[in-house]
Amino acid sequence: MQKLKNENGMVIVEATIVFPVMFLVIFFLIFMGNAYFEKCRVQAVVTEVTVDGAAYCADPMLFSVDANGTVPGFGTNPEPYRYFTDMGKIINGKGTSSITNELNKRLDNISTGLFSGMQPTDRKANITFNNGFIYSTLSIDLDYKITVPVKLIGSSDYLHIRYTTRAEAPVTDVPEFMRNINLLVIGLWGVCLCGFLVLVGCGNNVRGFGSVKFADGTPLTVGEVRVSNEQFQYTGPLEADGSFELGGLSPGSGLPPGTYQVCIINAKQDDVWLISEKFRDSSTSGITFEVVKGKKEPFNITVEPPTAPKKRK
Fold first, then answer.
1. Is 156 exposed, middle or buried (0-12, 13-18, 19+ CB in 10 A)?
2. Class of 205-303 per CATH?
3. Model's pTM, two decimal places?
4. Three-state secondary-structure class, residue 245
5. Which ranges of the chain does DSSP label H, i.e. alpha helix?
6. What residues does each domain of the chain span?
7. pLDDT tens-digit profile of 256-309?
């Protein structure tokens, strides 16, 4: 009975069982902590590159500054009004390659912490410029893998942990925003001014319409009627019934009062002219329009077919 109650050596037996498990857990926690440390480092790098990339979006000339190390001269294109056209070309073109290269360079330079071989690998970066015109942002989504040098029981490969990190930064481009607003204001004033001029200028205009026919009453259906004087020139196409409509900004806006010389242009089919040569030039057609305010009568034109060439005897 004394031998059964002897506890000598039990501590060694327990330590033999507990210590390996305890050390295994401690080292596993250290490895996982190092992996989490790498994840934080990657997140910091992605955030820094996103902020720098937003600066590239706000000032495209930074590409030239980084490449040459000097401030660009007057010949550099600052790409104005890029938010109206295609801002994506700056990011999806040269911007993507520059930002991606910078991201990869910084990720390659980060330390692996306590253990080697735990740098982020199998990296896939997606850079997106979100153009909201008034408020724009640049976002970077990075998917990567960190290898923990630990083999789980029953596994022949190391433990791989996949992470996804995202960062988004506003693109602060106040000068370009003000330039865009100024362009919108100027464009709005231009539209209003054009509308005013059209309303005022067309107030005295007279509708210019009529028809072009041959002497036998057959309509001329091919070509255009052109009227001109020292100040204005208007052109209207011939319709299927030989009718035409003349005007300024649109066919129905009419003609300003005055005297116009008339000719018919492009009145040919299969490279064969359908009218006499004298009607093709306003100086030889002998046709004039007298546009009088308040008079709304059609301008009817009679043309002649081309003269057949004389046969040689």
1. exposed
2. mainly beta
3. 0.49
4. strand
5. 10-58, 62-68, 88-89, 96-109, 174-201, 282-285
6. 10-172, 205-303
7. 888 889 999 988 888 888 888 888 888 888 888 888 877 777 888 888 888 766
